[in-house]
């Protein structure tokens, strides 16, 4: 049994090993995420960024190693425990919007709040405000199939932020967006994180976006590269 | 070779689907060959007997169409693989239809073999007229009759399958399509016409002489007005099944719903279009059976064996078509379910949603099915 993680880390991982049907994705990753910081995880395609975010955000059980959230173990939690953690503490945006197709944009954004037990009126009011912040208030009553991909992705970002969870995971959230929209959405994500004191873990292969972050971790072949700063600087130039 | 490779990769569900297609084809082929045997024997009433083969044939065609339609959603990897191998939409269509036609052909061939063996002086005198024993068999007749099944099933499968143009492995955002005004209003005149015909058939001065239509299966004779009237009524109710399901979904999600009601209601509304048809077919079949059953129970008639076999076949096809459609919808919903899971939706909530949706759909079907039975003046 190891010692509990340092107190100032909201998330703390040690020696995570994870493979998908025998294909190793993570081969021993250790990192800490401090409260309120914005951490970028960079690396090429297939370097294990999504798997790392999946393990940290309690979507995937780890094969080996430990994950702690606020001094509480995540790696020992069962399925129901991880679901509760995702519902109440974490927000998530993926590379695809993955909205619920039969719900309107506003209902999609209100869903995490409703699932967490908020009242209908409060949930819808909060959803409306977040849609406005992400410049998609005009789509509130439309369904995902009637919208363009970049608007759907903005709605997905609003959904992740609506419940104002302590930690937001963003796995390549700007993938479906055009270049000008990328910066804008990321800026909204970053400013929302700062103004609400949220912790943001961002996975991206785009070094230009990683500069929004306070700190960068570089993943290569499922391991943390020894000199992330140098790697990012090299990629940036 | 392709079908052999496919069959080696069959899972239990695929195997069950294949076996049901082959069995259904074998039974329909038996009906067709019996008609042929009777015709050879010369007992008369051939056209009527041939018409009696149509409902099971339609059931097999319906099942083939629904299963073929489900293939792209159930086996996206197969479509991706075929596309990567250079097969265009036409060829994929033909390959999927060919798989179903092959099952039908094998089922019919089995029955033909049995028919020929029985004709070889094995069958007793009781079966002799049914297989036309003692009369030489024109070679083309059984072949032509049996070619009908693979052809009908294959064509309906090929027409039903949908292959939108997009990159493989990238499903489109599922659209929620609404019913148009025409589709909502069309059943109303049909229902009125049906009810009018039924009232005409039941008018006080209607005589028994009008009841010129002899129904098979030990059912009493009826008049064309009554039969067509009831057919139109049943059609109108079947056409309204989908819109009523959508309405039930809307009612479920009324007035600031909690996640359970919201997901159940909106889900039902979104799926109403695709669930409506197989549910309506199943409800109509069950209603028809209840009507016949009521008559048999009231008059104490023994259920004719052939009618029982035919009824079972049609019911099995309708049930299997519904199962195939449900499976297809579930495969289509996978991304949405993954998204809900990612949000930490408890599985209990999703189960509750499914149960609530089934309850609402059941209520609608009870309404349409019940009305179909109640409005039946035949018996």
Automatic annotation (TrEMBL), chain A:
GO cellular component, one term: plasma membrane
Top-level lineage group: Bacteria
GO molecular function terms attached to this record: ATP binding; ATP hydrolysis activity; transmembrane transporter activity
Any matching Pfam family: ABC_tran
All residue ranges annotated as the ABC transporter domain in the record: 11-237
Keyword 4Fe-4S among UniProt keywords: no
Record has ATP-binding as a keyword: yes
Keywords: ATP-binding, Nucleotide-binding
Family: Belongs to the ABC transporter superfamily.
Protein's UniProt name: ABC transporter ATP-binding protein
TrEMBL record, chain B:
Lineage: Bacteria, Bacillati, Actinomycetota, Actinomycetes, Kitasatosporales
The protein, known as: Uncharacterized protein
Keywords: Membrane, Transmembrane, Transmembrane helix
Domain of life: Bacteria
Transmembrane segments: 18-37, 92-119, 139-163, 184-202, 227-254, 275-293, 354-375
């Amino acid at each position: 049994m190891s010692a509990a993680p340092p107190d100032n880390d909201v998330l703390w991982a040690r020696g995570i090993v994870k493979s998908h049907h025998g294909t190793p994705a993570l081969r021993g990753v250790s990192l800490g995420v401090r409260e309120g910081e914005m951490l970028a995880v960079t690396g090429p395609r297939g370097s294990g960024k999504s798997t790392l975010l999946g393990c940290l955000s309690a979507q995937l059980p780890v094969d080996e190693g430990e994950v702690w959230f606020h001094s509480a173990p995540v790696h020992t939690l069962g399925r129901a425990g991880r679901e509760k953690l995702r519902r109440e503490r974490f927000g998530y945006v993926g590379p695809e919007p993955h909205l619920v197709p039969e719900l309107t944009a506003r209902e999609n954004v209100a869903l995490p709040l409703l699932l967490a037990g908020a009242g209908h009126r409060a949930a819808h009011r909060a959803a409306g405000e977040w849609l406005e912040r992400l410049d998609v208030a005009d789509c509130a009553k439309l369904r995902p199939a009637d919208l363009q991909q970049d608007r759907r992705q903005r709605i997905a970002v609003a959904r992740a932020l609506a419940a104002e969870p302590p930690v937001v995971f963003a796995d390549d959230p700007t993938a479906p967006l055009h270049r000008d929209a990328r910066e804008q959405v990321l800026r909204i994500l970053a400013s929302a994180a700062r103004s609400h004191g949220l912790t943001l873990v961002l996975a991206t292969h785009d070094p230009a976006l990683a500069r929004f972050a306070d700190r960068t971790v570089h993943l290569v072949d499922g391991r943390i590269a020894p000199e992330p700063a140098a790697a990012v600087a090299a990629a940036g130039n | 070779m392709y079908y052999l490779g496919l069959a080696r990769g069959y899972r239990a569900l695929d195997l069950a689907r294949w076996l049901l297609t082959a069995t259904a084809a074998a039974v329909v082929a038996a009906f067709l060959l019996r008609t042929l045997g009777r015709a050879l024997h010369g007992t008369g009433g051939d056209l009527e007997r041939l018409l009696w083969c149509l409902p099971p044939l339609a059931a097999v065609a319906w099942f083939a169409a629904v299963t073929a339609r489900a293939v792209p959603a159930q086996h996206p990897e197969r479509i991706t693989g075929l596309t990567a191998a250079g097969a265009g939409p036409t060829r994929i269509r033909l390959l999927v239809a060919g798989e179903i036609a092959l099952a039908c052909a094998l089922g019919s061939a089995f029955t033909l073999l049995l028919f020929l063996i029985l004709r070889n002086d094995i069958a007793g005198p009781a079966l002799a007229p049914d297989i036309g024993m003692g009369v030489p068999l024109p070679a083309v007749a059984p072949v032509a009759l049996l070619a009908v099944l693979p052809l009908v099933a294959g064509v309906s499968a090929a027409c039903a399958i949908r292959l939108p143009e997009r990159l493989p492995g990238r499903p489109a955002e599922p659209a929620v399509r609404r019913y148009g005004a025409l589709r909502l209003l069309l059943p109303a005149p049909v229902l009125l016409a049906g009810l009018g015909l039924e009232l005409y058939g039941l008018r006080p001065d209607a005589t028994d002489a009008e009841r010129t239509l002899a129904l098979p299966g030990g059912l009493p004779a009826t008049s064309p007005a009554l039969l067509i009237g009831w057919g139109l009524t049943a059609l109108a109710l079947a056409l309204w099944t989908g819109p009523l399901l959508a309405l039930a979904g809307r009612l479920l999600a009324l007035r600031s719903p909690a996640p359970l009601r919201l997901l159940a209601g909106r889900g039902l509304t979104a799926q109403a279009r695709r669930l409506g048809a197989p549910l309506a077919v199943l409800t109509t079949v069950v209603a028809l059976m209840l009507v016949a059953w009521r008559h048999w129970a009231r008059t104490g008639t023994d259920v004719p064996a052939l009618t029982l076999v035919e009824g079972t076949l049609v019911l099995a096809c309708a049930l299997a078509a519904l199962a195939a459609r449900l499976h297809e919808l579930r495969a289509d919903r996978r991304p949405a379910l993954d998204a809900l899971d990612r949000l930490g939706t408890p599985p209990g909530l999703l189960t509750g949603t499914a149960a609530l949706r089934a309850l609402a759909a059941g209520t609608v079907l009870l309404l349409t099915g019940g009305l179909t039975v109640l409005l039946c003046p035949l018996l």
